[in-house]
Write a sequence for this structure.
């Protein structure tokens, strides 16, 4: 038979089969082939439940394990209304139907009764162990015939298993559902099993002689101990990678592997050995919840590995959907809806694993480092996952290969994926080393350039410093000259005023008050010259003040008296509230200059008929002197700027001054360990407050 491919058109069929004679032509369309494949796929679960000939009793010879596959009969109880006594009575026994292989009905809410018969050979001693699996079944009740009458309840011994029942009620301490049997005679012994579960509806069983059972238990403990150890080790390695590289992708993969570990620990009954009285309370969360979280954590890992958010927006939303679906399935466990959610999650998982395999193939085709390892890991896990999902959905028969396909695939997947991620770590380290070398080379070049710039800047700074020193020297000489030239005229004026006072008139002369004011003004000028020009030459550090204990109330009274003498008929209201004889450590001349400057400013910016108020209080170990004027006030944004040297406020254009007074006030108050501030008055004007520490 030859196969001829033709173009798809209305006149010629796409597929033409010919056998010698040109007249014998059979046309098969695309749709027919698709429907044929779909029919074969949908017929798979039907084949698993196909009726087989009536099973024969399982003959127990005592030589190795014997599977129950091919010896099982089932009775479906849709409403779960049948009790064991009902199954033994009436025509219910005739309703049992044989099945090929083991039981596998997928996800269903029905109750299933399973029956099989055992017969021991004369060579055996009648002691056997019946092992039932899987261990994630919720409720498993078994009755083994030990009496002669198979239709009597009293001839059966009952056992209760399931991950919703404490392991302490099992007939023997073992991680699996194990029934020790002692078949005393060589006749036929019936075994009935009732199965109710929200997980996948499957049942497998084996009969062991004692030697084979103990040997199998030891081998299984070693294998699963190794599997759990490998998963924990791989999780630990990926957590180390995540901490070292600060990359959440490794952390997500570690969580995925831990979810596998938890699922297998619950599915194989390991928790029941550690906590036999309470393992049944957590079994659903370990098995079902662990399986659901595998989908969620794996999606997070894939999203970070392929950066789907930036490169594949539609795929990114699909993986986000699977992630949320897995979380919802986990949350459905306490609500009793896990079985319904899990079946849909696994169907979506089939699409996901196929898509992930395609992504791994893309990595391999693009020559990405470790792309072959990524592809191998995805193929291993996805093949195992597909087989396991099809078994759980009832589309593949339950046997040893399909039952442990996921564990085998997961083991290869974890090994290959760890190697691939290790390759990425190695690549990242090589890139980091290369970047470090490049940065070191750039640093050397930059250091050379900076050294040249530093040499040039140093030369420029030295030249600028030399120019600055020369300018300061010129300023110092100028200040000395001004100070000398300023003091001489002041001395001449002061001498002549004294001569006029002595020769022209006495104390009762009409012009004597004016002469007295002139003398006070000249004395004030001398103080200003001494303090402003003599104590702080330009560019030099001011000398330390000559501190002595000063009684603040009397000191302020003398300053007010002297200031009023200079300003004639202006008025100052001085109030000392609760200060007593408070003292401060101060240089009287410097502190007097500061307060006189503040009072002079208050007079300058107040109306002639408005008084200046001074209030002295003691609070929290400080003396506070508040000087208030009634002028136009200071703008809020200038309250700090007016303390700068040579700065004059916006409203001071019609008032004499050079912008030095407040600068000197802050410097003097600072030398005394105090602080000065300006604020706007509540009723207008400005308030200058000087705070000085009280002497102990």
């Amino acid at each position: 038979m030859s196969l001829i491919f033709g173009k798809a058109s209305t006149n010629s069929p796409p597929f033409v089969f010919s056998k010698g004679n040109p007249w014998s032509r059979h046309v098969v369309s695309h749709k027919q082939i698709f429907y044929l494949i779909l029919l074969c796929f949908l017929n798979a679960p039907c084949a698993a439940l196909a009726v087989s000939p009536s099973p024969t009793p399982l003959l127990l010879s005592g030589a190795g394990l014997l599977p129950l596959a091919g010896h099982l009969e089932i009775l479906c109880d849709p409403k779960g209304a049948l009790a064991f006594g009902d199954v033994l009575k009436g025509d219910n026994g005739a309703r049992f139907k044989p099945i090929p292989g083991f039981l596998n009905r997928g996800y269903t809410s029905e109750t299933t009764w399973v029956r099989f018969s055992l017969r021991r050979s004369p060579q055996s001693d009648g002691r056997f162990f019946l092992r039932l699996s899987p261990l994630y079944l919720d409720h498993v009740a078994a009755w083994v015939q030990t009496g002669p009458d198979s239709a009597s309840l009293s001839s059966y011994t009952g056992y209760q298993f399931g991950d919703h029942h404490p392991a302490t009620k099992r007939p023997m301490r073992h991680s699996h559902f194990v029934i020790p049997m002692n078949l005393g005679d060589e006749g036929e012994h019936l075994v009935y099993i009732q199965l109710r579960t929200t997980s996948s509806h499957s049942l497998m069983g084996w009969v062991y002689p004692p030697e084979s059972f103990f040997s199998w238990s030891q081998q299984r403990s070693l294998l699963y101990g190794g599997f759990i150890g490998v998963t924990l080790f791989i999780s630990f390695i990926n957590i180390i990678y995540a901490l070292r590289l600060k990359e959440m992708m490794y952390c997500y993969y570690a969580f995925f592997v831990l979810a596998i570990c938890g699922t297998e620990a619950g599915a194989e009954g390991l928790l029941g050995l550690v906590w036999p009285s309470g393992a049944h309370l957590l079994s659903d969360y370990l098995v079902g919840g662990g399986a659901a979280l595998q989908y969620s954590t794996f999606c997070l890992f894939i999203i970070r590995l392929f950066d789907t958010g930036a490169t594949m927006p539609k795929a990114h939303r699909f993986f986000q959907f699977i992630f949320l679906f897995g979380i919802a399935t986990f949350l459905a466990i306490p609500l009793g809806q896990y079985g319904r959610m899990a079946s849909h999650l696994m169907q979506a998982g089939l699409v996901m694993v196929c898509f992930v395999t395609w992504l791994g193939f893309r990595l391999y085709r693009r020559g990405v480092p470790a792309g072959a390892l990524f592809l191998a890991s995805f193929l291993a896990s996805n093949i195992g996952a597909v087989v396991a999902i099809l078994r759980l959905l009832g589309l593949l028969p339950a046997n040893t290969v399909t039952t442990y396909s996921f564990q085998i695939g997961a083991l290869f997947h974890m090994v290959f994926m760890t190697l691939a991620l290790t390759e990425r770590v190695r690549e990242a380290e090589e890139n980091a080393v290369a970047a470090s070398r490049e940065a070191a080379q750039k640093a050397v070049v930059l250091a050379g350039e900076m050294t040249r710039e530093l040499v040039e800047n140093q030369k420029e700074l030295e030249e600028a410093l030399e120019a600055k020193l020369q300018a300061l020297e010129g300023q110092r000489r100028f200040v000395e000259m001004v100070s000398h030239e300023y003091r001489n005229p002041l001395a001449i004026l002061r001498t002549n005023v004294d001569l006029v006072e002595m020769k022209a008139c006495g104390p009762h002369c009409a012009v004597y008050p004016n002469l007295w004011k002139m003398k006070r003004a000249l004395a004030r000028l001398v103080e200003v010259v001494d303090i402003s020009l003599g104590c702080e030459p330009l560019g030099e550090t001011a000398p330390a003040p000559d501190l002595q204990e000063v009684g603040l109330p009397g000191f302020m009274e003398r300053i007010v008296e002297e200031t009023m003498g200079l300003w004639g008929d202006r008025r100052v209201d001085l109030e000392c509230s609760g200060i007593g004889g408070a003292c401060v450590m101060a240089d009287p001349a410097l502190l007097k200059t500061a307060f006189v400057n503040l009072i002079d400013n208050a007079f300058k910016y107040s109306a002639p008929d408005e008084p200046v108020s001074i209030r002295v209080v003691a609070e929290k170990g400080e003396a506070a002197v508040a000087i208030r004027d009634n002028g136009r006030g200071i703008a809020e944004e200038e309250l700090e700027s007016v303390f700068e040297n040579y700065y004059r406020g916006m409203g001071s254009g019609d008032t004499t001054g050079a912008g030095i007074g407040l600068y000197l006030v802050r410097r003097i108050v600072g030398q005394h360990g105090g602080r000065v501030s300006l604020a706007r008055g509540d009723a207008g004007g400005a308030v200058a407050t000087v705070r000085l520490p009280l002497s102990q």
Notes: Residues 1-52, 535-540 have pLDDT under 50 and may be disordered. The radius of gyration is 51 Å.
